[in-house]
UniProtKB/TrEMBL annotation:
Keywords in alphabetical order: ATP-binding, Chloroplast, Ligase, Nucleotide-binding, Plastid, Signal, Transit peptide
Signal peptide: 1-29
Residue stretches making up the GS beta-grasp domain: 64-144
InterPro entries, per database record: Gln_synt_N, Gln_synt_N_sf, Gln_synth/guanido_kin_cat_dom, Gln_synth_cat_dom, Gln_synth_gly_rich_site, Gln_synth_N_conserv_site, Glutamine_Synthetase
Subunit structure: Homooctamer.
EC code(s) of this entry: 6.3.1.2
Protein name as catalogued: Glutamine synthetase
Protein family membership: Belongs to the glutamine synthetase family.
Pfam families associated with the record: Gln-synt_C, Gln-synt_N
């Protein structure tokens, strides 16, 4: 017996029901999309800024955006502004000089406020993409004299000395930094007005209760690689909310350019994340590690056979100019260099093999192989890399102590050179 065909009414109801479910699925999909967009916008109003920020200009114009970056009057604040360049460039010499209002950055009086920017190094812009660039600049008076806060100029003089060039100085800089909550200026991941558990589980840690700010660290890592910065690694630090990244090995003035550009990129990323970046060498008083900028250093002679003796001679020179270096190694460093928390006392020079409580640390491999590098553990996280790198080269390559001072220092440090 055959089943009779469905009636017209049944077919009609089935069709209506199918249409209803189709419309319901479509409405749910639209609502989900609207919810996602609303989350990304302020007050539930859909914003198209993200689409505009991602615009690729290359198919429509040869013009690019150059972000001119310089160091402000405090010696640690980073400033920048943008200008249009008519075509892509490959070298800073192709870029025009520019100017800024030095009275607004603490670098010139109001009645003669024009400061001139000289482009010195170019990096790819990870924020705008395409052919757009970041430009590291230093600052001069209209007559061409470097202004007092232009530390790059003096560093370039030292690092371009033929004796220094012949030694091919390598630098590996370990930049530590602390992430702070925006409104309370308290480390990221810390309870407001309170403290987390003691140090120990946070260094290179994994987990929501131990690692705070990994997304910022990872974003910065990738952005630096994109920009062409010689970043070599990153890790969570001993104090929760504190991180480190390493730049190098870099040769000569390049080390300072790369650190300053990496700091700029980090400032921009934390700005977007709504987190405050701190380079204070001791952001939290008490039984917490400070933030340093350990600088690994070697010369061609140190890296060759017999280099260990050259390293010991460099350490001797560094001991004789200890306070000269300390005075140039960052503001507030006396709060960090206490002799505790993996630091040496600020007033006493010391060195040792594999000893992180010394002013200068020499690695086990360097001692074993008889050549390699030294690590200057004194620089603070807010140090100027132009100052530190050039001062290391000056003290260990260009400066010659008296024989009497050398003999006395060798005896005190138990160095045979």
């Amino acid at each position: 017996m055959t089943t009779p065909p469905p009636s017209f009414l049944t077919r009609f109801l089935h069709a209506r029901l199918a249409l209803f479910y189709s419309l319901l699925r479509l409405c749910l999909a639209v609502l989900r999309e609207a919810a996602v967009l609303a989350v990304k916008s302020d007050n539930g109003v859909v914003s198209r800024l993200e689409d505009l920020l991602k615009l690729d200009m290359a198919p429509f114009t040869d013009k690019i955006i150059a972000e001119y970056i310089w160091i402000g009057g405090t010696g640690i604040d980073i400033r920048s502004k943008s200008r249009t360049i008519s075509r892509p460039v490959e070298h800073p010499s192709e870029l025009p000089k520019w100017n800024y209002d030095g009275s607004s950055t603490g670098q010139a009086p109001g009645e003669d406020s024009e400061v001139i920017l000289y482009p010195q190094a170019i990096f790819k812009d990870p924020f705008r993409g395409g052919n757009n660039i970041l430009v590291i600049c230093d600052s001069y008076t209209p007559s061409g004299e470097p202004i007092p806060t232009n530390k790059r100029y003096r560093a370039a003089q030292i690092l371009s000395d033929q004796k220094v060039i012949d030694e091919i100085p390598w630098y590996g800089i370990e930049q530590e930094y602390t992430l702070l909550q925006t409104n309370v200026k308290w480390p990221l991941g810390w309870p407001v007005g309170g403290y987390p558990g003691p140090q120990g589980p946070y260094y290179c840690a994994v987990g929501a209760d131990k690692s705070f700010g990994r997304d910022i660290s990872d974003a910065h890592y990738k952005a630096c690689l994109y920009a062409g910065i010689n970043i070599s690694g990153t890790n969570g630090e001993v104090m929760p909310g504190q991180w480190e990244y390493q730049v190098g090995p870099s040769v000569g003035i390049e080390a300072g350019d790369h650190i300053w550009c990496s700091r700029y990129i980090l400032e921009r990323i934390t700005e977007q994340a709504g987190v405050v970046l701190s380079l204070d060498p001791k952001p939290i008083e008490g039984d917490w590690n400070g933030a340093g900028c350990h600088t690994n250093y070697s010369t061609k002679s140190m890296r060759e056979e017999g280099g260990y003796e050259v390293i010991k001679k460099a350490i001797l020179n560094l001991s004789l100019r200890h306070m000269d270096h300390i005075s140039a190694y960052g503001e507030g460093n006396e709060r960090r260099l206490t002799g505790k928390h993996e630091t040496a006392n600020i007033n006493t020079f010391s060195w040792g093999v594999a000893n992180r409580g010394c002013s200068i640390r020499v690695g086990r491999d360097t001692e074993k192989q008889g050549k390699g590098y030294l690590e200057d553990r004194r620089p603070a996280s807010n140090m100027d890399p132009y100052v530190v790198t050039s001062l290391l080269a000056e003290t260990t390559i260009l400066w010659q102590p008296s024989l009497e001072a050398e003999a006395r220092a060798a005896k005190e440090l138990q160095l045979q050179v």
